[in-house]
């Protein structure tokens, strides 16, 4: 099957997100990517696109945009999503993860989108290059990638330059995803920028 690449140039607006999601859905379906991986990639794409639309550009910016590039290597079981924008320099992965609240009442609304990407992805990176923000994340799947316990493997076939995400077991994953669902059940999480 090999490698498939899909690209879009979109306005950096909230109403452009469904177009990007449709492209992602078509690409993942064509490659027979498992449903859980599809859902996680969709959530991560939503969080980062919403961040770009809301925070990357000043309100008076002319023609704010975001380029979306989806690369799927079915043979290797890797789906990679890259976003490029010309907005304010921002590394979403810089700094430590926020502390988990001990009580629901203490939880802050917002700011969980980047946590979600860092926890759900199998790797991510950011670089500022040619006055552009370049953010990338990926997921692994396949016969040997169906169980999350393999995430601590150092021989994972990750794209060059990608950093492996923090290790997370299924119980922790359910806590992160459950926390996001509890606070924003029907609207996108605005994340942080």
Helices and strands in order, then pairings?
Elements: E1 3-11, H1 17-30, H2 35-56, E2 65-73, E3 78-85, H3 113-120, E4 123-129, E5 132-140, E6 163-164, H4 170-183
Helix pairs in contact: 1-2, 2-3, 3-4
Describe, in plain words, how this protein is organized in 3D.
The structure is a single chain. This protein is α+β, with helices and mostly antiparallel strands. Helix content is 30%, strand content 23%. Strands 1-2-3-5-4-6 form a six-stranded antiparallel beta sheet, with helices on one face. A hairpin with a 4-residue loop joins strand 2 and strand 3. Helix 1 packs antiparallel against helix 2, helix 2 packs antiparallel against helix 3 and helix 3 runs antiparallel to helix 4. The protein starts with a strand and ends in a 10-residue tail after the last helix.
Feature tags:
6 strands, disordered C terminus, six-stranded antiparallel sheet, 30% helix, globular, 193 residues, 4 helices, single chain, alpha+beta
């Amino acid at each position: 099957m090999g490698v498939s690449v899909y690209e879009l140039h979109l306005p950096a607006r909230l109403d452009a997100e469904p177009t990007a999601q449709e492209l992602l859905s078509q690409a993942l379906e064509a490659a027979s990517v498992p449903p859980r991986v599809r859902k996680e990639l969709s959530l991560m794409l939503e969080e980062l696109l919403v961040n770009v639309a809301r925070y990357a550009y000043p309100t008076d910016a002319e023609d704010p945009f975001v380029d979306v590039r989806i690369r799927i290597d079915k043979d290797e079981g890797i789906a990679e999503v890259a976003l490029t924008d010309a907005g304010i320099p921002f590394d979403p992965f810089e700094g430590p993860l926020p502390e988990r609240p001990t009580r629901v009442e203490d939880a802050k609304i917002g700011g969980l989108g980047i946590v979600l990407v860092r926890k759900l992805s199998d790797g991510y990176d950011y670089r500022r290059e040619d006055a552009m923000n370049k953010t990338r994340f990926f997921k692994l799947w396949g016969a040997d990638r169906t169980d999350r316990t393999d995430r601590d493997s150092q021989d994972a076939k990750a794209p060059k330059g990608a950093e492996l995400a923090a290790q997370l077991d299924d119980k922790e994953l359910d806590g992160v995803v459950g926390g996001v669902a509890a606070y924003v059940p029907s609207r996108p999480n605005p994340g942080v920028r």
